[in-house]
Amino acid sequence: MPAKLSVNLNAIAMLRNRRDLPWPSVIGLGRLALAAGAHGLTVHPRPDERHTRHSDLPEIRALIDDEFPRAEFNIEGYPSEDFLALVEKHQPEQVTLVPDDPAQATSDHGWNFAGESAFLTPIVKRLKKGGLRVSLFSDADPDGIGAARDTGADRIELYTGPYGSYHSDSAKAAKELERLGKTADAALAAGLQVNAGHDLVVANLPALVKRIPALAEVSIGHGLTADALEYGMAGTVGRFLKACGW
């Protein structure tokens, strides 16, 4: 089965937050994305709420529950106590743990699984006890996969930022793609499912899903939102689904 598409709403929320106005509507555009065939919605509610606001979360949860019950809600963020309480309250189908500092503009690296296993393991256990699927943000590094598995997580999410940054250098992109592929191979062999996200676009998705045919999900926000300015949300979701192999 092709990789499922989860639409990250953060860029839409950031645009809304430039003005004290209700548009663009995070919920409305999320509805359009799901109606067009997206498999889920992703948010990263940072402590300063500069993107998705905490008040968006119950509305997204209700949108999925009431109108698109087969879709999934994915909440990503650094696992502070406040974040853990937030996800436990809103019960997403998936929680993606990322090692970013609150001041970062965006996530830009994966976990040091060996060095931070003592921190991550009880958090993963807590979330899984609550019935939540747990994914861990991962660099393209096969050597860390054993430690990632040992935390008890269900999945890793490959950080594809470097791959996306080589959009104009095919040789470097191919080299980075192979690093991602080898990391995915190691994860799948260890019993972990594999997601991917960051700077993915219609142009670089086909090569990624070809190299990692068992890819479970891609979470895409910035590139998808940029395309939606040109093609509309429904048309853009269709383009990304096609790039994923649907």
TrEMBL record:
Keywords: Cytoplasm, Pyridoxine biosynthesis, Transferase
Reactions that this protein is recorded to catalyse: 3-amino-2-oxopropyl phosphate + 1-deoxy-D-xylulose 5-phosphate = pyridoxine 5'-phosphate + phosphate + 2 H2O + H(+)
Residues that hold 3-amino-2-oxopropyl phosphate according to the record: 8, 19, 199, 221-222
EC identifiers of the protein: 2.6.99.2
Keyword Iron-sulfur applies: no
Residue spans crossing the bilayer: none
Localization of this protein: Cytoplasm
Pathway as given in its UniProt record: Cofactor biosynthesis; pyridoxine 5'-phosphate biosynthesis; pyridoxine 5'-phosphate from D-erythrose 4-phosphate: step 5/5
Keyword Cytoplasm listed: yes
Any one GO CC term of the record: cytosol
Main location: cytoplasm
HAMAP family: PdxJ
Oligomer and partners: Homooctamer; tetramer of dimers.
NCBIfam families assigned: pdxJ (TIGR00559), PRK05265.1-4 (NF003626)
PANTHER family to which the protein is assigned, alphabetical: PYRIDOXINE 5'-PHOSPHATE SYNTHASE
Function: Catalyzes the complicated ring closure reaction between the two acyclic compounds 1-deoxy-D-xylulose-5-phosphate (DXP) and 3-amino-2-oxopropyl phosphate (1-amino-acetone-3-phosphate or AAP) to form pyridoxine 5'-phosphate (PNP) and inorganic phosphate.
Similarity field: Belongs to the PNP synthase family.
Protein name (database record): Pyridoxine 5'-phosphate synthase
Organism from which the protein derives: Mesorhizobium sanjuanii
